[in-house]
Amino acid sequence: GMEKINFSGGEPFLQDRGEFVGKLVQFCKQELKLPSVSIVSNGSLIRERWFKKYGEYLDILAISCDSFDEDVNVLIGRGQGKKNHVENLHKLRQWCREYAVAFKINSVINRFNVEEDMNEQIKALNPVRWKVFQCLLIEGENSGEDALREAEKFIISDEEFEQFLDRHKDVSCLVPESNQKMRDSYLILDEYMRFLNCRNGRKEPSKSILDVGVEEAIKFSGFDEKMFLKRGGKYVWSKADMQLDW
């Protein structure tokens, strides 16, 4: 019954310079015959040769871009050394056109980019979807004593998030995701094939589907199907069904 799979990280292109995720994408399309296969990446490690080899099996490539100001990207932690993140974004956009992969942008709105006006740049890139997330605290991941990184300084209020959305209301591809919409509306599997329940503000793992099967494990996923539909989680997600001008 699965229709869509999304590979996210960390950075999916780190392993074997993208070969690993490429083989996963190919398997999902050829063997599992899934209507939609997508990847979320920061784009820094993607090369044109990857598109030549695996582009036909990928429906959507989502690139994380939180700012079109390179200084802000460095401040947020999106800096890519000598590589300019914004310039790289345009190069990836062109490759998606050439290799018929739907292009998507994900932006996390936080303390350092909440005042930014991204209208012109987003319209120029013309993604099929622009997912705009409100910065979310997850205990043990970006909040609390055992956190991998501290995100408290990035947090914005609901009102500030709404002001950002209002500033970009004329961008037709914008899909907003507040903290409320985001927390329970995803089915997330970790590297041990465990569903991660985020309802209590932290990622609580189920037993692995390899041990107990999907039907048993999914009971502990915290997934809210109504919220999934409310946030626009169901859309035309197969590039075969998208009438795109590549």
UniProtKB/TrEMBL annotation:
<keyword id="KW-0004">4Fe-4S</keyword>
<protein>
    <submittedName>
        <fullName>Radical S-adenosyl methionine domain-containing protein 2</fullName>
    </submittedName>
</protein>
<dbReference type="InterPro" id="IPR013785">
    <property type="entry name" value="Aldolase_TIM"/>
</dbReference>
<dbReference type="GO" id="GO:0003824">
    <property type="term" value="F:catalytic activity"/>
</dbReference>
<dbReference type="GO" id="GO:0050778">
    <property type="term" value="P:positive regulation of immune response"/>
</dbReference>
<dbReference type="Pfam" id="PF04055">
    <property type="entry name" value="Radical_SAM"/>
</dbReference>
<keyword id="KW-0408">Iron</keyword>
<dbReference type="GO" id="GO:0046872">
    <property type="term" value="F:metal ion binding"/>
</dbReference>
<dbReference type="GO" id="GO:0005811">
    <property type="term" value="C:lipid droplet"/>
</dbReference>
<dbReference type="GO" id="GO:0005789">
    <property type="term" value="C:endoplasmic reticulum membrane"/>
</dbReference>
<keyword id="KW-0051">Antiviral defense</keyword>
<dbReference type="InterPro" id="IPR051196">
    <property type="entry name" value="RSAD2/Viperin_antiviral"/>
</dbReference>
<keyword id="KW-0411">Iron-sulfur</keyword>
<dbReference type="GO" id="GO:0051539">
    <property type="term" value="F:4 iron, 4 sulfur cluster binding"/>
</dbReference>
<dbReference type="InterPro" id="IPR007197">
    <property type="entry name" value="rSAM"/>
</dbReference>
<keyword id="KW-0479">Metal-binding</keyword>
<feature type="domain" description="Radical SAM core">
    <location>
        <begin position="1"/>
        <end position="174"/>
    </location>
</feature>
<dbReference type="InterPro" id="IPR058240">
    <property type="entry name" value="rSAM_sf"/>
</dbReference>
<dbReference type="GO" id="GO:0051607">
    <property type="term" value="P:defense response to virus"/>
</dbReference>
<dbReference type="InterPro" id="IPR026372">
    <property type="entry name" value="RSAD2"/>
</dbReference>
<dbReference type="GO" id="GO:0005739">
    <property type="term" value="C:mitochondrion"/>
</dbReference>
<keyword id="KW-0949">S-adenosyl-L-methionine</keyword>
